[in-house]
């Protein structure tokens, strides 16, 4: 019981520290706030009370033209006012939206020097309320099912999101080395997530070291094969938009390489924790196990998990470009042409490099775990004690490692 209380106290301290970190990250300035919101603009929620589609035209499968709207503002200093707003369609299905009466929209108000409304633009459908609802439901489910561990997992989820938005993205925009910055951030996140969930224990240490080696391997492979594949980072969504926005100096190819091992890092952490926890359980049930035997047990666990995890990674990536595969099949493009195309090659690179990290993290974690849990000893099993040794002495000697480990 004292050990359980001590472990719980450490957990409480760790959770408190991460809560402070999350709070500090939330208020951490990124240096890009003036570009995101200016004093002559205001954002608020509105409801469409009238939509005039007279100027819309259907051209093939796309719709172009202008939609005249009347919007009632639902919050902010101009609440309950009804304004005329514009919605111009440019013929791009991924960017255009068509409103109907009763829809909620995010309205961007342009103000003049006196603070009066000069122009109103219905930017997009308002989804923030639904997003917050989903987040709350997810948090309730996670904490309700996982209890204290679920609460720590939720905290790690929030910490990861804040680190990506408040640290990783701003540093990439400021032209820091994408590979080193991403590797550093992912390593920090790996340590935070694993130790927050597993606690400051040997199990957490083994999982972190195994995951770090797997991520490092993925980073090296991603950097090498991105250059060998001649993959241009323009395959990433909005890459050209970023260049035209005044960031042509960014090395998007290295950012793509970083994105490859960032995307695989979550699965790598999961696998490392599985192997570490399983091996810890094996050693706790058989404290006299030899190091090599423990390594073999870790390998056995790793083989069972790797098979499903690599398939999981393939499904996760393929789901993101399923329409691309459908388009090529619909046009009857040969498989050789398809797999050699830049977009498909980039996704193959992501899948295989991420899978490399997954496959290697299992033996990495098994070897480290065997050395840590057994302290690197190659003890002779107790059953091999000398026959001339008294029975009572053999029993006492068999108990010594257990009592020492307690």
Q: Could you give a quick summary of the protein structure above?
A:
With 406 residues, the chain is of the alpha+beta class. It has helices at residues 2-26, 33-36, 128-173, 178-198, 202-228, 239-244, 252-285, 291-318, 322-330, 335-340, 342-373, 391-405; strands at 41-59, 62-73, 82-90, 104-111, 117-125.
What characteristics describe this protein?
alpha+beta; 5 strands; 5-stranded antiparallel β-sheet; 406 residues
* Secondary-structure element string: HHEEEEEHHHHHHHHHH
Percent helix range: 55-70%
Beginning-to-end CA distance, first to last residue: 13 Å
- Tell me the number of helical segments per DSSP (H or I, 4 or more residues long): 12
Q: Looking at the structure, what is the overall shape?
A: globular
Strand content: 5-15%
Radius of gyration of CA atoms, rounded to a whole number: 28 Å
Describe this structure as you would to a colleague.
The structure is a single chain. With 406 residues, the chain is α+β, with helices and mostly antiparallel strands. It has 12 helices and 5 strands. It has helices spanning 2-26, 33-36, 128-173, 178-198, 202-228, 239-244, 252-285, 291-318, 322-330, 335-340, 342-373, 391-405; strands at residues 41-59, 62-73, 82-90, 104-111, 117-125. Strand 1 (41-59) and strand 2 (62-73) form a beta hairpin. Helix 5 (202-228) packs antiparallel against helix 7 and helix 8 (291-318) runs antiparallel to helix 11. The longest helix is centred in the middle third of the chain and has 46 residues, at 128-173. The relative contact order is 0.08.
């Amino acid at each position: 019981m004292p050990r359980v209380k001590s472990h719980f106290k450490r957990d409480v301290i760790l959770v408190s520290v991460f809560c402070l970190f999350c709070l500090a990250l939330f208020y951490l300035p990124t240096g890009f706030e003036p570009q995101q919101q200016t004093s002559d603009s205001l954002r608020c929620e509105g409801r469409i009370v009238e939509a005039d589609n007279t100027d819309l035209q259907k051209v093939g499968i796309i719709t172009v033209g202008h939609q005249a709207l009347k919007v009632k503002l639902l919050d902010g200093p101009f609440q309950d006012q009804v304004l005329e707003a514009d919605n111009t369609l440019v013929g791009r299905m991924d960017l255009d939206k068509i409103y109907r009466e009763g829809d909620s929209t995010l309205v961007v108000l342009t103000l003049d020097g006196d603070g009066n409304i000069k122009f109103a633009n219905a930017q997009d459908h308002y989804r923030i309320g639904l997003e917050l609802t989903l987040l709350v439901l997810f948090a309730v489910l996670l904490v309700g099912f996982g209890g204290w561990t679920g609460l720590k997992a939720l905290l790690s989820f929030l910490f990861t999101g804040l680190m990506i938005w408040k640290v990783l993205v701003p540093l990439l925009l400021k032209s820091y080395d994408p590979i080193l910055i991403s590797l550093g951030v992912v390593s920090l996140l790996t340590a935070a997530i694993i130790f927050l969930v597993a606690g400051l224990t040997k199990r957490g240490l083994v999982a972190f070291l195994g995951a770090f080696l797997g991520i490092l391997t993925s980073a090296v492979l991603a950097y090498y094969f991105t250059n060998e594949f001649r993959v241009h980072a323009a395959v990433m969504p909005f890459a050209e938009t970023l260049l035209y926005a005044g960031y042509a100096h960014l090395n998007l190819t290295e950012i793509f390489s970083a994105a490859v091992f960032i995307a695989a890092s979550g699965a790598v952490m999961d696998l490392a924790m599985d192997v570490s926890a399983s091996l810890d359980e094996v050693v706790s049930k058989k404290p006299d196990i030899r190091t090599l035997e423990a390594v073999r047990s870790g390998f056995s666990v790793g083989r069972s998990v790797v098979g499903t995890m690599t398939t999981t990674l393939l499904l996760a990536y393929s789901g993101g470009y399923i329409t691309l595969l459908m388009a090529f099949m619909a046009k009857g493009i040969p498989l050789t042409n398809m797999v050699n195309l830049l977009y498909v090659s980039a996704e193959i690179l992501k899948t295989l490099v991420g899978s490399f990290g997954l496959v290697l993290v299992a033996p990495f974690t098994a070897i480290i775990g065997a050395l840590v849990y057994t302290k690197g000893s190659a003890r002779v099993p107790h059953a091999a004690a000398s026959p001339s040794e008294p029975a009572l002495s053999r029993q006492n000697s068999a108990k010594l490692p257990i009592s020492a480990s307690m």
